[in-house]
Write a structure and sequence with these properties.
The protein is of the alpha/beta class. It has a single domain, classed as 3-Layer(aba) Sandwich (Rossmann fold), CATH 3.40.50.150. The protein is built from eight helices and seven strands. It has a seven-stranded mixed beta sheet, sandwiched between helices. Helix 5 links the parallel strand 2 and strand 3. Bound molecules: S-adenosylmethionine. S-adenosylmethionine binds next to helix 4, strand 2 and helix 6.
Length: about 230
């Protein structure tokens, strides 16, 4: 099929965007936050860090929640933005070695008063929490995304943002074991799109990121095209 639409190479675009980012976002990544004896966990990377940073500065959430701290890369990026707007971050990490490394890195970044690292399974921690988050970053295990979605939406304030990392796994070539995440993310993306109380945009930066806003009305009402799987 021919098209008149101008095209560009995604990888080049990615490198170009990264080259435009502020030094501290890139340095944070390069300095290596992980201790040598702990298995590496991929971070959100500089472009998504910058996106979350911009969203925090724009929406000024008082309380932010992160699922999946790892060694604190995304937490530190968010903490720097939260310092400017007077907000706090609660971040949950299941692996005590990573949580320990994150606490050290957060302390070194001078953000211990902004960021609280909870060492536990996020599925358990979120049980009794009241809905008071203006922004939630979902970057935990991909197998949990779908199951956790309704609870995370409950925990958002109205007009709050849910940011989900790795949503373009279904169209990426992932190595052997990681392939199962493609299916998990496919189901997750469809569930997100099917939520009448969430409006979502998917962006091809990093490994794909979805930004969803919790809406006060049913966004399908009176607008759904006939072939949508929805009869509201
Ligand atoms: C992709 S890494 C997070 C990267 C981090 N957000 C960053 O950008 O630096 C995913 C993390 O989620 C953690 N995790 C997995 N399952 C979890 C659970 N049920 N509760 C809390 N953390 C979990 C993993 O141990 C891992 O550190």
């Amino acid at each position: 099929m021919t098209t008149d639409r101008p095209t560009y190479d995604f990888e080049r675009a990615h490198q170009y965007i990264e080259g435009l980012l502020p030094d501290y976002i890139r340095r944070l990544q390069q300095e290596g936050l992980l201790p040598e004896d702990v298995p590496a966990q991929p971070s959100i990377g500089p472009t998504v860090a910058q996106l979350v940073d911009v969203l925090i500065l724009a929406t000024k959430p008082r309380n932010v929640l992160e699922i999946g701290t790892s060694a604190g890369y995304s937490a530190i990026a968010m903490g720097k933005a939260l310092r400017q707007v007077g907000g706090k971050l609660t971040t949950v990490e299941i692996d005590p070695r990573l949580a320990h490394a994150a606490r050290n890195n957060i302390k070194e970044a001078g953000l211990s008063d902004i960021i609280d690292v909870i060492v536990n399974d996020a599925n358990l921690v979120l049980e009794g929490v009241p809905p008071h988050f203006g922004l939630i970053l979902q970057d935990g295990t991909k197998d949990d995304y779908l199951r956790m979605l309704p609870r995370l939406i409950e925990l958002l304030e109205m007009n709050g943002l849910l940011i989900t990392d790795d949503v373009l796994f279904p169209v990426m070539s992932l190595p052997g074991k990681a392939k199962r995440y493609q299916y998990a993310l496919q189901l997750y993306n469809e569930a997100l799109q099917g939520r009448p109380d969430m409006q979502t945009v998917w962006l091809p930066i990093g490994d794909g990121v979805a930004i969803s806003v919790k809406t006060p009305t049913n966004r399908f009402k009176g607008e759904a095209p006939h072939d949508w799987p929805c009869d509201l």
